[in-house]
Amino acid sequence: MRKFLSGLLFGCVLAASTTLAGEALPVAADPVLEQRVLTLSEQLRCLVCQNQTIAESHADLAIDLRNQVREQLGQGRSEQQVIDYMVERYGDFVMYKPPMKPATWLLWYGPLLLLAAGLGLLALQLRRRVAAEPDLPAEELARAATLLDADLAIKEPV
């Protein structure tokens, strides 16, 4: 009974906390600045999650990066200046869509190269797959042929 009551109490507390929690308010008082922060945050990769932008991620580093973006845009820097700062600090990997240049060719063409290599290895293995001669002694091969001939003779119509 005690476990039931404690579970019921926990459920009530959890339900109350979720109903009292409201929608998160924007951090910047200026809605135009907040929209610029959001737009720019969608172009930068979360370095922890790696498959999310910093706008989507809830990781501490992503929150810090969004705050840096907000701070720099609040100081009057342009979007390109903020992007340049982030790339200088974290490298091209911080861009959600990295630029096409020799240093990032592996990011762009690496999956295609791996696919081509895999298909090449598969083709090579299939080509090498030749019916091998059975390594049976000649007398066993002759016996198998005799049995096959006998089986075919039985099945042939008279």
UniProtKB/TrEMBL annotation:
GO terms for biological process: cytochrome complex assembly. The chain crosses the membrane at residues 105-124. Residues 1-21 form the signal peptide. Residues 12-148 form the CcmH/CycL/Ccl2/NrfF N-terminal domain. GO terms for cellular component: plasma membrane. InterPro entries: C-type_cytochrome_biogenesis, CcmH/CycL/Ccl2/NrfF_N, CcmH/CycL/NrfF/Ccl2_sf. One of its GO terms (molecular function) is metal ion binding. Possible subunit of a heme lyase. Belongs to the CcmH/CycL/Ccl2/NrfF family. This is Cytochrome c-type biogenesis protein.
